[in-house]
Model the fold of this input.
Amino acid sequence: MNGNIAPAIYDAAPVSTVPQNSQALVEIEQQRAMAEVQSAIVLAKKFRRNQIEAMDRITTACQRPGLAEQAVYEYARGGNAISGPSIRLAEALAQNWGNIQFGVKELDQRNGVSTVQAYAWDMETNVRQEKTFQVKHERSTKKGKYALEDSRDIYEMVANQGARRLRACILGVIPGDVIDAAVGQCEETLKAKADTSPEALKKLVEAFGNYKVTKEQIEKRIQRRLDTITPAQLIQLRKIYNSLKDGMSGPADWFETVVVTSDDDPHQKTDLKTRLREKAKEAVAPDPEAAPEEHIYAKTECPDHPGNTYNAEYCASCAKRQGCPAW
Done:
């Protein structure tokens, strides 16, 4: 009897309850995410942005010196300086333009690689920009590449790479004239409130010092002493600093390399380009100790005048000098 009951119980029992629970959780999460998106779209349609008020908010935000100083970056490409809005300005634009969802999501992480997605979605116009990319858990240095093991280092690497794509996504859903107006307002703010006090310049030098840029290199770039810097030059240096901070360029793109010629005398410094020019001059400069031409004689007798050996000054006027076997 027991032998007949056991198979019946086995057939009626579920194979596994865990997969069913997992599937239910996935469906619940999908429904929740869908409900959030639908509600956000409904709210965006109900409370449409007032573009005049949004522009006023953006203009007011760009009048803050703290934002204006970080709003624009600059980097070199093909010998030309290219500038554009930074991630900080892009975030401020999205916040004040309104009805925009944006962010960076890590979709997967395996085998030392993170798959990441950056997105920006205008819920009112249903315009969406997204970029999916991969970030290797490694860092490149002058000595080579090494793998990142610490979770914090990996997070910072992913966040840094994601910020660049996020900026591109946000700028892709906001009208271009709005972006141009914001950049222009930030530059006007910097011109009106450019701080060239000794304290501000000291902070500027310390900030560039984090990227191994010295005060001498800064002064060489602006072609004057730092304490006589103009507001326009200060604005350009801040753009360069934002570019270094965002990883858009390196110090070598903007500043000439300074090398120390002697460890014992750190004041004997010269830039690399000057040293190369001096070395080239030395290569082509005549040797002052070289013997004059009248003291330099041919190796053998003259083929046209056997028994005679002439010097370089005499042979210079000979039509057969070029290729002469005596020389």
Remarks:
- Confidence is low (pLDDT under 50) at residues 1-13, 260-269.
- The two ends are 122 Å apart (CA to CA).
- Residues 18-46 form the longest helix (29 residues).
